[in-house]
Amino acid sequence: MKNIPLYLAHGAGAGHSNSFLNDLGNAISAKMNQPIIPVTFSYMREVEITGKKRPPPPFKRLIPEFSDCIKNEVACVVAGKSMGGRVAAQLSKEPMVKAVVCFGFPFYPAGKPEKHRLSFLENMEVPCLIIQGTRDQLGSYDWVKQQSLPENVNIVWIEGADHDFKVLKKYNKTATETISNMADITQTWLNDIL
Prior knowledge:
With about 190 residues, the chain is of the alpha/beta class. Helices cover about 35% and strands about 15% of the residues. It has helices at about 20-30, 40-50, 60-70, 85-90, 120, 140-145, 175-194; strands spanning about 5-10, 35-40, 75-80, 95-105, 130-135, 155-160. A six-stranded parallel β-sheet has the order 2-1-3-4-5-6, sandwiched between helices. The chain is globular.
């Protein structure tokens, strides 16, 4: 990947202290042999300092925050878990952004596919990878497969995984194995397109 930095944003409810996101960042960093740069939105920094949970601010306020983190880069990859991926997808027009990676894209609010967010993917100007669990309540396999997505959006499915990438026991796969698999997919895809 020629040492292009990867910026990783968190989801709406948990920051980088979340064990899944922390382990995923470390696994990707090890596979790519370079550090991953965590992006923590200001509302989450406040949550981590005060210990009081609060919802994220209006979505449009998060986009300039992420954009500000990458403003000095010549080339970078932007990525995120759930909401963080949705924000990352809005940065594809930035000249330094060469690819977008989303872990568990929130295609719609839980149980409300009619309020879908497909428009967030419609104008992607760079390649986009979405790694999605087949049991994701914010974008199930059956629903997503029926949608028409841009050609530069590539979806890789994790069999039996939910939105937090917890896999059903019958698949006999540990959380560590799932995370390692996601890191492999990410590295291979980035090597192919960059």
